[in-house]
């Protein structure tokens, strides 16, 4: 019996129009373009401006574009999973809002929260619905409006994050394509080092939590950096070893866009040259769950059917993981 796998049959991304450059950040906090570029590789990031605009806007625009380019009827979508840490509201799920906005009236939908690893978690989960035969068309979204939880007086975080995201369509295939394997990890001991302190059931919003600026993302950069470098690199090598892949076998590394130094360290440990690394951090910054689908969207025209891709990410929680997949189609 032929094995059924979940293959990506389309990808689309969306970012807001407003560009926040390093030069503009220089007028807001004590920083400069050279310092930001040297340490992160970021030159600019997109910001979603306007009233009553949340992450669902990013997800909706991504899915609309995806449905159009794949000529897919929204009523044929079985499931939508949205990976995000900046939902429009605690409930309902942002995925529910997106499903309604695009007319996916026959799908069920839900959000998952795994910070920067969220897209990998959601992609693995969605592929399993396909592999079991339960569903035929599944949309996976990675999207975040990080500007909604960034303190623009904190130079350690405001230089890093931007808004944006993307979506992929998963469908079944019996060809030797699609999601081949995944390795996903969690270490809750990392929670104190990268989090948003208030706004949950532990510390509900009060005048005090707002005054203390506890509703913004915060991190202890040196600890997070060290953990990210080691674990994102290790899990990428581990998935290669598990699937008997050499550096020559890999066509593309698709890393989470958190920091250029972390990306470089991961590629070096895998033995991958820079020409095989997808990178757009310089123009989008860290869009959390949105970085990997945005990379796939940006590089879609360079991808060929059967290409071997390793997707890798690290995020708050701590969460980290990698996916080995074979690309499903040639450039259109």
List the helices and strands and how they pair.
Elements: E1 5-14, E2 18-21, H1 22-26, H2 33-40, E3 44-47, H3 55-69, E4 79-83, H4 94-102, E5 108-112, H5 118-131, E6 138-145, H6 155-158, E7 163-173, E8 178-186, E9 194-196, H7 207-211, E10 217-219, H8 221-242, E11 252-255, H9 260-270, H10 281-284, H11 291-298, E12 308-315, E13 319-326
Parallel strand pairs: 4-5, 4-6, 11-12
Antiparallel strand pairs: 1-7, 2-3, 6-7, 8-13, 9-10, 12-13
Helix pairs in contact: 3-4, 8-9
Estimate the mean pLDDT confidence.
97
* Element string (H = helix, E = strand): EEHHEHEHEHEHEEEHEHEHHHEE
Number of helical segments?
11
What structural class do you assign from the helix and strand content? Answer: alpha/beta
Supply Rg.
19 Å
CATH topology of the largest domain: Peroxisomal Thiolase, Chain A, domain 1
Total DSSP E strands: 13
Largest sheet: 5 strands, mixed
CATH superfamily of the largest domain: Thiolase/Chalcone synthase
Alpha-carbon distance between the two ends: 31 Å
- By CATH reckoning, the class of the largest domain would read Alpha Beta
Sum up the overall morphology in one term.
globular
């Amino acid at each position: 019996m032929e094995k059924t796998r979940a293959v990506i049959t389309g990808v689309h991304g969306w970012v807001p129009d407003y560009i926040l450059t390093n030069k503009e950040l220089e007028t807001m906090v004590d920083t400069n373009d050279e310092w930001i570029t040297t340490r992160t590789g970021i030159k600019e990031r997109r910001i979603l401006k306007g009233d009553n605009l949340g992450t669902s806007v990013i997800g909706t625009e991504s899915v609309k574009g995806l449905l159009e380019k794949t000529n897919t009827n929204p009523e044929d979508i079985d499931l939508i999973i949205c990976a995000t840490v900046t939902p429009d509201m605690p409930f309902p799920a942002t995925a529910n809002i997106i499903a309604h906005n695009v007319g996916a009236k026959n799908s069920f939908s839900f959000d998952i929260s795994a910070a920067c690893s969220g897209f990998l978690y959601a992609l693995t989960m969605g592929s399993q619905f396909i592999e079991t035969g339960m569903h035929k068309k599944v949309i996976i979204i990675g999207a975040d409006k990080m500007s909604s939880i960034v303190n623009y007086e904190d130079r350690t975080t405001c230089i890093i994050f931007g808004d944006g995201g993307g979506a992929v369509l998963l469908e079944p295939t019996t060809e030797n394509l699609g999601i081949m394997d995944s390795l996903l990890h969690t270490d809750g001991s990392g929670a104190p080092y990268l989090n948003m302190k208030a706004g949950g059931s532990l510390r509900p919003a009060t005048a005090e939590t707002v005054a203390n600026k506890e509703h913004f993302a915060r991190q202890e950069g040196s600890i997070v950096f060290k953990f990210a470098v080691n674990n994102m690199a290790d899990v990428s090598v581990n998935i290669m070893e598990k699937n008997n892949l050499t550096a020559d076998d890999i066509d593309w590394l698709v890393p989470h866009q958190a920091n250029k130094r972390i990306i470089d360290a991961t590629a070096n440990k895998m033995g991958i040259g820079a020409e095989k690394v997808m990178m757009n951090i310089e123009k989008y910054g860290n869009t959390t769950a949105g970085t990997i689908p945005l990379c796939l969207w940006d590089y879609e025209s360079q991808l060929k059917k059967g290409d071997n891709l390793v997707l890798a990410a690290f995020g708050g929680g701590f969460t980290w993981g990698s996916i080995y997949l074979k690309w499903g189609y040639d450039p259109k």
